[in-house]
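Illustration 12: 2-oxoglutarate-dependent ethylene/succinate-forming enzyme.
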Amino acid sequence: MSATRTVKPVSAGDETIDRLPIVDLQNFAFDEAGADRIAKEIDRIFSETGFCYLSNTGVSDAEIARIFEASKAFHALPQADKEAVAINAYHRGYMAPKTSLIVTSSVATVTKPNNSESLMIMHEIAGDDPRFGQDLQGPNQWPDKLPAFRADVQEYVDAMLGLARRFTTLIARALGMAPDALDHFFARPTTFLRLLHYPPQPNAADDEFGSAPHTDYGFITILLQDGVGGLEVRRRGGGWIKATPVPGTFVINVGDILARWTNGRWQSTPHRVQNKNTVDRYSVPFFFDPDMSETITCLPGCVAANEAPRFEPIVYGKYLMERIDKNYSYRNAAGGAA
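Figure caption equivalent — predicted structure in token form:
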């Protein structure tokens, strides 16, 4: 377990703040009253900003160190070795710089592709799984020249799955439901682990990004970032908050599906990355989403009895594929077929 760190929270409601609020999970596992207190805090923050830091998550310093080492080792490989695991039709593998253009951004007209590279790893699908061959249901790809890579990545994925599932019980509490009310949606979660590398862009123009302004597609994102910085989160009133790295924390945010699930009660907040430093930046977002086959309808308690939901029910997988097909150049080249 990581050593306990004491971090002073910051009010989420103040539009003049220059740092996101921090939620401390230290008492979550041991104290029912503490869990309810944290849930109320999450409801307030996700209603106001949609973003916060998480501290005392139970993810070890060793697991964090190993995933960063794995990411740096992968991105240090010769380009030919990275291209050998180029992203496949199941959205798993290496994405070279400037191969994604966020045309679905709700806050900017994006004309330049993202200047970042990444390795995408999703939930494992065995060859005998009935879903095999369907949209996004296929094999991951692993670099041959890094023998410890797969085990280190899987260790981190397991840690993220545990954290995401625990946090989902807090989300249910925050929305006035039983802690296990959402569990069945995630019996077979759709997950993405992305090992991102942002090269330095100290002279980047205002419209040049490592990741252009966007919202995340899914349920929640749990982000591990190094100490370099560059992530910014849009305030509801305009302008941007720097998500300055805080040691011992993750950044967590609401995705579009969770905002839709809560009928807009919670905010899926735009964010962006510009690495204007002179050194490389590495980050590891973990996206935790429902089963592709799940239908997303307004959750109980998120709409008044005499009001209609703001959003029509949707199948998560259909919603997701529409966005992936639009934003990634390899999908266009392949005609969007999985």
